[in-house]
Amino acid sequence: MATFHFLSQYIWPDGGPDGILAEQLAAHLHDKLGQDVRLVGGTGTYRPTGRPRPQVPLVHLNHYRAGRRNLVATFSQYCAVSRAFRHYIDESVRPDDVAIVPRAPPTSISLPRSIKRSGARTLYCLQDSYLDILREL
């Protein structure tokens, strides 16, 4: 069975919209359709929230955390997250898996070659499409 890998820079316990939308779709695929899913993100939080931990497997990747205090720090963190995602893809994504990548720059720009090398299928720019996908499932 293929595994769905949702890659988002910030995931639970962060409250960012990309991570929450990825979490909702992963939970639907896991709970309602019995699919194997992984919600994969970096460490740290940008928008702290008190919501409960989702009931899907979470993978927090260790990487350099610079915060968003200026453009250089933001860019440095984007590069670190991209490296962590590439390493995760090389180690954990198998042929016929599905990698779901939001449109955020650290993931949508730098990961296509890594995903293609793994043999996985990729869905991009889902932030605008999550609700439509859920309706179709």
Largest sheet: 5 strands, parallel
Radius of gyration: 14 Å
Give the strand order of the largest sheet, numbering strands 1, 2, ... along the chain: 3-2-1-4-5
Average pLDDT taken over every residue: 82
Number of strands: 5
Structural class: alpha/beta
In percent terms, what proportion of residues is strand? 15-25%
Structure in words:
Helix content is 40%, strand content 18%. The longest helix has 22 residues, at 71-92. It contains five helices and five strands, in the order βαββαβααβα. Strands 3-2-1-4-5 form a five-stranded parallel β-sheet, with helices on both faces.
Short description:
With about 140 residues, the protein is of the alpha/beta class.
Please describe the topology of this protein.
Elements: E1 3-7, H1 17-31, E2 36-42, E3 58-61, H2 71-92, E4 98-101, H3 105-108, H4 112-118, E5 121-124, H5 130-136
Parallel strand pairs: 1-2, 1-4, 2-3, 4-5
Which labels suit this protein?
5 strands; five-stranded parallel sheet; 5 helices; 40% helix; globular; 137 residues
